[in-house]
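User: I'm writing a tutorial on reading structure tokens. Could you give me a worked example: one chain, its sequence, then its tokens, then a sentence or two explaining what the tokens reveal?
Assistant: Sure. Here is the example chain.
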Amino acid sequence: MPGGPTLSRRELLRAGAVGGVTLAAGAALKGATGATATANAKAHAELRMGLVHDLASSARTYDFNRDWLFGGQYVSGSEAPGYSDSGFTTVVTPHTVTPLSWGNWNPSEWEQQWIYRKHFEHAAVAGGRVFVDFQGVMTTATVYLGGVQVAKHQGGYLPFSVELTPHLAAGDNVLAVVVDATWQQVPPDGKAGGPGYVDYLQPGGIYRDVALRVVPEVFLSDVFAKPINVLSSSPGVEIQATIDAASVPKGPLKVTAEVLDGATPIGSAATTVSLTEVGATVATFTVSSLSGITLWSPATPKLYDIRTTITGRDLQPHTVLITTGFREAKFQADGFYLNGQRLEIFGINRHQLFPYTGMAAPERLQRRDAELIATELNCNMVRCSHYPQSPYFLDACDELGLMVWEEPPGWRYMGDSAFQALVLQNVHDMIIRDRNRPSVIVWGTRLNETNNYPGLYAQARRLAYTLDGSRPTSGAMYTQSTTGWAEDVFGYDDYHSSGGEATLDPPVAGVPYLVTEAVGAIDGAPLYRWIDTEATLATQAQMHAQVHNIAQSDPAYAGLLGWAGIDYASYNGGDRVWNAVKWPGVLDTFRVPKPGAAFYRSQIDPAIRPVILPVFFWDFGPSSPPAGPGPGTMIATNCDHVELSVGGAYFATGTPDTTDYASLAYPPVFVDLTVAGLTELLGSLDQSLLPELRIDGYVGGQLVGSVSMSADPARDQLSLVIEDATIEAGGNDMTRMTFRALDAYGNQRPYPSGDVTLTLTGPATLIGDNPFQFATYGGVGGAFIRSNPGGGFGVVTVAAEHPTLGLALGTVVVSPASGLFL
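And here are its predicted structure tokens:
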């Protein structure tokens, strides 16, 4: 194969990278150690397209996240190379311009213009054309090289690339980025009233990864591999390879594409292209008659690599590797069909906000969110609300079989013609970035909950057809009117309730119909915090179960995406906001499952794992019912029945409620958990006399699991969990830790007092509030452990200490990072 060997993108992913390169022999690595690092260097993929380059003598991609200099608020002239940056702070991207807590964010702290600078030597990037690739900058980025403006990009959620080649100077080069994080006429911003108008906060900064790419004079700037005839006996792939030429080649170019199953080629094709002018040329051809293809689905998320190469006389060959999957996704009036089989959509909405870091979360945390949604909440689909989300999150969705609704940035507002031009540009860039992904099954081509703009949205729909053509279009509506509706799938945000129970409107007749939001934003309790009563928290679980039950009862619903997966930052003073956080998530901001998550967690075959989740606290303190949880107490389970014992004696048997939740695969159990005779015990000084609760679950007559709960606070403990055993050095990696008040058996204990104090020793930095207001948040807390920008390897130890719950310890190892850094 011309151009040398390549590493499979999935091989690189298994190594912890989202993309990578193979190096030319003897390439120098800054910050890497050892022969393994040299031979199998990790680097971030070409960020605009997610490509992995097969290198000849000079093409390479650098991780460009390290050694940025952050100068704070922009001062006129600070982009110039001669400006002194000796007082700037060294930072690593992703980066947020202002420190944040877990809550009470104030947009005035980031709504300024900010300056970043980065030095690099010309010699390090010699040998080809040079591009800098930004995954995302919030909100408008003006890019300078050597004091000359080379690009300006508006919008924080989509990538952009800038060619630096004509502006490079010998010796030191200064790349400067002025970040405008003010409220401006850029989606989703724009409406008078400022950030309080949009439902979610958007802290400024270079908040996604940056790469620097060196490529040949003639290179592949994009490859779209569209599977065709997927359900036939001989599927194929239509290749659209975009060739970017800085000069006209002397002769024709050969473009070759191979379909790889792992390292094994299973099909190939080639075409010849003659270029007559510089710029972009698209070569289209087909790899046909593939056999033995495994279809991508949530159950079998099979991925294939497409290796595309251009060669020509006196030209360096250039290869890119993209990943795709073979699947057919169709919405019809009687539901959603994947690969010809009806599949009920069972999903959730997700914001990409994190405590302390805003949206500036590294790959590890982005991927972890997808894992939680797919494997903890058992969802088969996620809506990226309300903007294109991290490519690392979407990489994980591809690998896990988690289907995706993706939409452009927007929220209830449409601006003038310039604003609408940005809407179309965002639709274009979103589709170009993610059209190879099998996980994306629908394009949102209208802004969330906006009025009908038939001409604009028809244009956006046509754009999706032109750029892709393999997926339907949609957009979330807040009314069921089809007047002026311009999409293929009717998406509806359905917030209705009656008598305290969640309900849904009937589907719009005769069109494919998907409920895109329900429950959390408007219906039910205004807040679902750990400090709220167990009855309030249980309501969340019940209402999510109710709407999914309705959606699954009628095939005219393609399914339902609940609101929301995770709590998120919102403007103080807004509706249903406390401490500048909205609390509709079934996971809290630290990704700890609330009682509301119990319904989702129970919707899995017990042969995979039996689930018994009490949707209540076994707590007889002043904020809890004195006679126990009482009538209608919910237990989320996939068992055939459960048996309850109180104080060691049989108490009750509970069976799934197949009357009110008949359409669910695993209906919840409801029991009367009123315990007589507790008044006297509650008056006793010896709370160890309070009875324990035990719940046994049975499937097919066999005991498959048990849960015990203690009411004795004297046996409570502080738990500390660090999610990862190892993180990489260099400042671009971090892991989450959570600490909780638990009873003797590991169940959440509500309403503790006091703070938690954290201590970290070792080569890492604690990112979080310290001390943490444990009582204010409700007995749950969290922080991040980030490797240090300056390096350092070894064991990191964290101690969490509470005045009454005691001390908890955890460790993580910081390991050397392999890669090509600049």
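What the tokens reveal: The longest helix spans residues 534-553. The longest strand covers residues 218-228.
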